Amino acid sequence: MMQNFSLRAGTIIDHAARYHPGREVIGRSVEGPIVHSNWQEVRRDAKRLSAALQGLGVQKGDVIGVMAWNTVRHLAVWYGIPGAGAVNHTLNPRLFAEQLVYIINHAEDRFIMVDPDLLPIFEAIIDKLPKIEKIIVLTDRAHMPESPLELLCYEELLEGQPDDAPWVEGDENDPCGICYTSGTTGNPKGVVYSHRSNVLHAMAAAAPDMVNISSNDRIMPVVPLFHANGWSIAYSAPMAGASMVMPGRDMTAAGLYEMLEMGVSFTAAVPTIWLGMLEHLKSGDLKFSSLKRVLIGGASCPRAVIETFQNDYGVQVLHAWGMTEMSPLGTICSFKPEVNALSPADRLTVQETVGHPPYTVDLEIMNDMGECLPWDGITQGRLMARGAAVVQRYLKGDGDAVDTSGWFDTGDVAIIDANGYVRITDRSKDVIKSGGEWISSIELENCAIAHPGVAEAAAVAVPHPKWGERPVLVIVPSAGQDPDKGEIMSLLENRFAKWQLPDDIFSVEALPHTATGKISKLELRQQLEDQGYKLPQ
């Protein structure tokens, strides 16, 4: 018989503080200065917060909403809340007020913890949040903002609290965190992560064929902790004993570059962040001094971005796919021996896929009848998932979110090849079906972005009397550029059959995005109509 070692989040920070106590944790604070800490100090503050929350009356299972940037202080909050037996509900400041009101009330948050610059968001909606009892501002007394609300000061709460009290005990299947989906097709849905799912997910993510994290790494999560469980980096980094750099609220390319140059070896963010960073590097004739790997997910990564990172800057790109409902890791494109044996050009083509899943994730592609489709690198189907950190049921859902065999429909359309590499061809709601044949909007977009004059692109379906739907391409020109539409079309002609080419190409100043940084194609179609673009009929 083996010991029953409970897989709770507190054991991660305990491990980091015990076996990697002096490993640096550096961050830009909300007050401005750079903060230098370590895992022992982060755990100390998490312990003090846990005690303070219990002193304020927080009970096991209570939900605490947190709206904060990626800071060292936020890491202590990340562990202090579940350490008190409560549930960490991450809040995205980019959500519309109506969405925030809905998810805070739906999750039944008791307390709010918020960075001072984000407090006005709550001042505007507090009268619609009847269950909120206390608001804790994540700063010290000297930087407490003036407000009509009754506020508690985070640093004052921690003063005098014990830093060695035990964590609140519980089952490893207790809720640890909540993150809501973006709600593009209705109200956002709550995904509840358990302690067990978070620990198992972090172990799977850190594996060599996945993110490949070790104690020799210094990791900077650009992706916010409030986005899809923070991509689990706040769990997997201390689990491996890695050093961390937290970039704070400055998301400009210059601000991020400054933090990356603090010895960061691995970083993670969505493609739009890296498009801006590459422009910054080019314009300033800059290089990375320490960066070795970059994880790119949240949206499809264009081939041109992968090539530039690897060929011009010597940084390996790990193209990834996942979703809130999967904690979020689904796949990462690391190279199996079969891929390493390919030519450099063919390996780059593989990197356009999102790779293969880790142990704890199982994937399948199915047709509309629920029949499994072949992994031949050609056949497209609905991408289905199940695993140790995949949603079973949404918070307060009427029933399970999976079918009778436990498969969760991701909403993505994909191809899987014989080596288990997944190519996402579209979201099921965005797929372009022309004359009964599917056209990948993602591949059209990625090809267009390879043009030096195109900063961003979106392919959308528009009605057509004969073919049902036809694609049109909407581009955002790079700064100071006016790309020729004929050149873009010629670029597309090299990769696509004539019937797959867009019927027209439109140029706009900016594309609409969701709160999580994804292009809102529903809003884009409406904008095209409102702005008088003549769409093909």
Overall description:
The chain is of the alpha/beta class and 537 residues long. Among the domains are: 10-192, ANL, N-terminal domain (Rossmann fold), CATH 3.40.50.12780; 432-530, 2-Layer Sandwich (GMP Synthetase, Chain A, domain 3). Helix content is 28%, strand content 24%. It contains 16 helices and 24 strands. The chain has helices at 10-19, 39-55, 72-83, 97-107, 119-123, 154-158, 195-206, 233-240, 253-260, 271-284, 303-313, 337-340, 344-351, 441-449, 485-493, 521-530, and strands at 24-28, 34-38, 63-67, 87-90, 109-114, 134-137, 152-153, 175-180, 190-194, 218-221, 243-246, 266-269, 293-296, 316-322, 329-332, 361-366, 381-387, 408-416, 422-427, 432-434, 437-439, 454-464, 468-477, 505-507. An eight-stranded mixed sheet has the order 2-1-11-10-12-13-14-15. A seven-stranded mixed sheet has the order 7-6-5-3-4-8-9. Strands 16-17-18-19 form a four-stranded antiparallel sheet. β13, α11 (303-313) and β14 form a beta-alpha-beta unit. α1 runs parallel beside α8 (233-240) and α7 (195-206) crosses α8 (233-240). It is globular, with a radius of gyration of 23 Å. The chain starts with 9 loop residues before the first helix and ends in a 7-residue tail after the last helix. The mean pLDDT is 93.
Give a quick precis of the structure.
With 537 residues, this protein is α/β, with parallel strands linked by helices. It is 28% helix and 24% strand. The chain contains 16 helices and 24 strands.
